[in-house]
Specification:
The chain is built from 18 helices and 8 strands. With 358 residues, it is of the alpha/beta class. The strands form 2 sheets. The chain has a 6-stranded parallel beta sheet, sandwiched between helices. A two-stranded parallel sheet has the order 7-8. Helix 7 packs across helix 8 and helix 11 packs antiparallel against helix 12. The longest helix has 23 residues.
């Protein structure tokens, strides 16, 4: 059974499962989920804890199997943690995990952590299905930008603070979200800082502005999300952030081009008469990229996608040192032009002019 991190507290209140699996790429939420499981296990009498870190090709999985079946020397109940940093246990690990799930020990809670985004093949692997079927899976996904203000409001409420009602409060949360985007660990620290600086109660915009540092961290996935949802100002801010953080133009372009190639595959399938869900599947995209393509697909024709692919090819050459008489000479300026072309095409027609003005 698979749940989201915000559902875990409710499930733990109903009683402990024999096994918990955490996977995803948001460190703060993964850490908090693991801490909640550990606390619930301690409260239920699981006082002894063993940790195995399965890293490297020579990890001895027999130690994990042996520990699960061994009698406890110090406590009646135990917590066994298995951490797989790469998210790939290998052939021996796959077989060991399947055997482990077939004979889950009594009076033992098992916590398996996969601190990585799993790909399609991993999610279909026998070892993953064995873990998922034996207990509860917590899928930790990156928090989308549009969800950040509400998330920050909830976190402030936990520490007895809140922003003002109405437009000023929304402005405060939007400002806060811009400062911490892509960096929830730093966001957690900034929230703690506000708790130390100000007493419980209402926070004014000026108090948040003065306290919160600009700790935003950008990656190419953030750029795709902004572009395919038509958030022009945010997309340009992320592009500028990537430039100043030292990302290479070639990598930024590769990510945008991958999005366009996936969109082209989906558009071709749709033009062949396949229904939208099947056409999106043809894109061979998963997670956030799949949702973004599904949203953008009805807005573009095959001709428009072909035009964007041609533009991406020109931009690729510029990023690698070639010149084009009708394009900017600089790689980042060329990327900006390609980004604006994408956003102009994928938005609903009535929203284009408004978005470009904003």
């Amino acid at each position: 059974m698979q749940i989201k991190p915000d559902q875990l507290e409710t499930h733990l209140a109903r009683g402990l499962r024999p096994l918990y699996l955490i996977h995803g790429d948001e460190p703060l939420l993964a850490q908090e989920s693991a801490d909640a499981i550990r606390a619930a296990a301690r409260a239920a009498g699981h006082g002894e804890r063993e940790v195995f870190v399965a890293s490297g090709a020579h990890f001895d999985w027999s130690g994990v199997l042996g520990a699960a079946q061994a009698l406890s020397l110090f406590a009646d109940k135990r917590l066994i943690e298995i951490r797989i940093p790469s998210g790939k246990p290998g052939k021996e690990g796959s077989e060991a995990l399947q055997r482990y799930c077939e004979r889950l020990p009594e009076d033992v809670i098992t916590l398996v952590q996969l601190p990585a985004r799993l790909d399609y093949q991993q999610l279909k692997a026998a070892w993953f299905n064995a873990l998922d079927g034996a207990g509860l899976t917590i899928k930790v996904e990156t928090l989308e930008r549009k969800a950040l203000p509400a998330w920050l409001g909830q976190r402030l409420a936990r520490q007895g603070q809140r922003v003002r009602e109405g437009e000023e409060g929304q402005k405060t949360l939007a400002f806060f979200a811009d400062r911490i985007e892509g960096n929830l660990l730093a966001a957690h620290q900034e929230l703690q800082k506000l708790a130390l600086l100000h007493p419980p109660g209402e926070l004014a915009f000026e108090q948040v502005e003065a306290a919160v540092l600009n700790v935003a961290r950008f990656d190419t996935n953030k750029l795709s999300e902004a572009a395919w949802t038509g958030q022009v100002a945010r997309a340009l801010r992320v592009l500028d952030g990537l430039r100043h953080e030292g990302e290479t133009p070639v990598m930024v372009h590769w990510n945008l081009a991958e999005d366009l190639r996936a969109l082209a595959r989906a558009r071709a399938a749709l033009d062949e008469g396949k229904p939208l869900p099947l056409a999106v599947k043809e894109a061979r995209a998963w997670g956030l990229r799949e949702r973004l393509i599904e949203r953008a697909l009805p807005q573009v024709s095959g001709h428009q996608v072909a035009h964007l692919l041609d533009a991406a090819a020109v931009c690729d050459g510029i990023c690698k040192g070639l010149k084009h008489p009708e394009w900017p000479a600089g790689a980042w300026d060329a990327l900006k032009r390609l980004l604006l072309m994408v956003m102009q095409q994928v938005q609903p027609r009535g929203a284009q002019a408004l978005a470009l003005r904003g």
